[in-house]
Amino acid sequence: MNNLTNSYEILVASLAEQGIDLDSVKNALKNQHIETPSWGYANSGTRFKAFAWPGAAVSTHQKIDDAAIVFKMTGIAPSVAIHIPWDKPEDGDYVAMRQYAENQGLRIGAVNPNVFQDESYKLGSLGNPDPAIRELALDHLIECCEIMDKVGSANLSLWFADGTNYAGQDSLRARKQRFEMGLQSVYAHLPVGGRMLLEYKLFEPAFYSTDIPDWGVSYAFCLKLGSQAQVLVDLGHHAPGVNIEQIVAFLLDEGKLGGFHFNNRKYADDDLMVGSVNPYELFLIYNELAGAESSPDEPTRTTARQVAYMIDQSHNIEGKIAPMIQSVLNCQEAYAKALIVPRAKLHEAQANGDVFIAHQILSNAFRTDVRPLLTQIHLEMGVPSDPLTAFLASGYEKKIAAERGRHAASGGYQ
Ligand code: RM4
Ligand code: MN
Ligand code: MN
Fold this sequence. Notes:
Structural class: alpha/beta
Distance between the termini: 61 Å
Shape: globular
Number of helices: 16
Radius of gyration: 22 Å
Strand order of the largest sheet: 4-6-8-9-10
Bound molecules: beta-L-rhamnopyranose, manganese (II) ion
């Protein structure tokens, strides 16, 4: 018996002792899906400077190739989100783009419209005081609903940079009404079975007011829109200290949690690797999700099973593909720890009002070293037992650096 088998068997024995059903934990881990973002493979940066990374993807085909490598290494990242127009094909052939992805073994995931980079959107998109600009934004959003059909995507993922910088700049109530009307028009164009995932963000780029600043506003809009509209939680879009797992619990219970944009932050919307700053928070979020998936409550259970798990990161100094693999693996580890929470025991301690024991049960799961289990899962899934090391040794980074070179990056003050 080698060391690895040894530590795996010790872990299995301890899980069995706690009454954890290993097969269902393994099944859940094998069925986990994390979508990666096309824009995470391209050059990006802060508003001060974007550093060009050797081999960073420029074309959508290259982004798809990179996402395919992440899938090949991890086995749990089968789709890639696209951002329009960043990923608009030169010939406009979205069906061919979908075909290209499928040839690499990938699906196209969420379609992300972009109504924040044109000159016209200086004062906002759907919230703009000028009806002609609102119309322009609406046209783009509706175009993205059509793109969903062409690429076979079920999710329209919306984020708006809309807001104001100064008190008195615009009517806050009028902006709310414009958003309500605009979102209704978009909702009417969703493809059959398609979902609208509505993101919120505390601040930035607007500094005085943001039109969809928090989950409550997003939730209120989604409630009015209907069952195909759900809230998207981006982990970087909250004030420091906000209890994100509580937001997740509330939205799950209301059937209104649509998806995640995973990343991590220290201060604001830092877009750092998932789990790099606060892995405990990531675990607590997954704990709510794993609890909801196995709960008899409806619509909680069905909602949890339909959550779109997506990464939204833009690396600027740490490379591209390896940090993406690390983020996917960190999601896997957090999920594994959440799956081994002995829920019956936890509920019992909660019902007895046993504060200390309840907390112990949860934090013990977090402190369990699940890496031997993950190695076993990788082997059973036919992916490298250590995906990150295998990727770094594969020569892929060297190959794309040589083939693609280093391309000037936009961004920063010029
Ligand atoms: C935003 C938000 C969106 C993403 C853009 C690029 O901060 O997180 O989801 O599409 O950045
Ligand atoms: Mn996001
Ligand atoms: Mn963001």
